[in-house]
Amino acid sequence: QVQLVESGGGLVQAGGSLRLSCAASGRTFSSYIMGWFRQAPGKEREFVATITWSGGHSYYADSVKGRFTISRDNAKNTVYLQMNSLKPEDTAIYYCAAARNARSNANEYDYWGQGTQVTVSS
Questions:
Q1: Confidence class for position 119, pLDDT limits 50, 70, 90
Q2: What tens digit of pLDDT does each residue of 99-115 get?
Q3: How far from chain centre, in Å, is Cα 8?
Q4: Which of 21, 23, 43, 118 is the least crowded, having the fewest Cβ atoms under 10 Å away?
Q5: What is the mean pLDDT of the chain?
Q6: Which residues are within 8 A (CB) of 110 and not within 5 positions of it... i.e. 6 or more apart?
Q7: Whose CA is closest to 79, among 105, 46, 48?
Q8: 3-class DSSP state for residue 52?
Q9: How far apart are CA 27 and CA 30, in angstroms?
Q10: How many C-beta atoms surround the C-beta of residue 19 within 10 A?
């Protein structure tokens, strides 16, 4: 069982940066693939990035590739999403998720955080 809590969201102007954190509780955190998703009003939840249990591999949606970086610190039971060069279209609620084995499909993730709001002004 895994409990996830996101933090770090806020208001930032276009071109700025923000780092999201996802704190996890659970004895088997390191064995989970961690992912970030986001959902804007009126839109479906979309994949942002994911990182393997070892931290050796990561994958990104085309819309954020080159701008966002996902990382994890298993010793701290925390996964991060560094967001640079933010655009207004990045505005959404960002969710942290965990799965045994998954890639970009939200249905593959078993545990979810409550979400944190990211708003990018133009």
A1: very high
A2: 988 989 999 999 999 99
A3: 11
A4: 43
A5: 94
A6: 2, 97, 98, 99, 100
A7: 48
A8: coil
A9: 8
A10: 13
- Residue 122 reports pLDDT greater than 90: yes
CA distance 6 to 12: 17
| SS3 of residue 5 by DSSP | strand
- Please give the angle made by the CA atoms of 70, 71 and 75, to the nearest 5 degrees: 155
Structure tokens at 8: 């770090």
pLDDT at 29: 74
Tokens of 121: 């002004």
Paired tokens of 73: 């610190």
Instruction: State the amino acid at position 45 in one-letter form.
Output: R
Establish how many alpha carbons lie within 13 A of residue 101's alpha carbon, considering only the half-sphere containing its beta carbon: 0
Q: In terms of Cα–Cα distance, which of 10, 3, 26, 2 is closest to 94?
A: 10
Give Cα 86 distance to the centre of its chain.
15
